[in-house]
Amino acid sequence: MASKVVVLLVALLLTGACQLLDSSSRCNAQIDWVNFIQVGSTQYVAGPQPAIALQGSDLGPVYAHVKFRVSGNICDPNYRLKDGDAAFLDAGTPIYRVNGQPPSAELAARFNRQIVAYEAMAPVS
Fold this sequence. Notes:
This protein is of the alpha+beta class. It has one domain: Metal Binding Protein, Guanine Nucleotide Exchange Factor, Chain A. The chain has one helix and eight strands. The protein has one helix at about 1-25, and strands at about 35-40, 40-45, 60-65, 70, 85, 95-100, 105-110, 115-120. The chain has a six-stranded antiparallel beta sheet with strand order 1-2-8-7-6-3, with no helix packed on it. Strands 4-5 form a two-stranded parallel sheet. The chain is globular.
């Protein structure tokens, strides 16, 4: 009888330890990301308002590439954005200049089969 109790206790301890190890890989917070890209120290956001649809002819040369997609990979609400981070664009996605706009004001990228304009946010003082 004592050996059955020991086996049961060991099984419970192992099960608990496995759950603790597994829980470290899960997010404890859910973040609702806005559609953004970070280029250098500037954050660009696709506006919540319906934007004017850009065409391929509106795109200038490639300005940068996404280095890291935060959605689905980051769950720390204190995460500090880095150059090349994007909310929903995959790593390697080209970020384009927009013809007629300085890159300090607007950039664009292909997202969900559309060309999306991302406007620079005013720096936070």
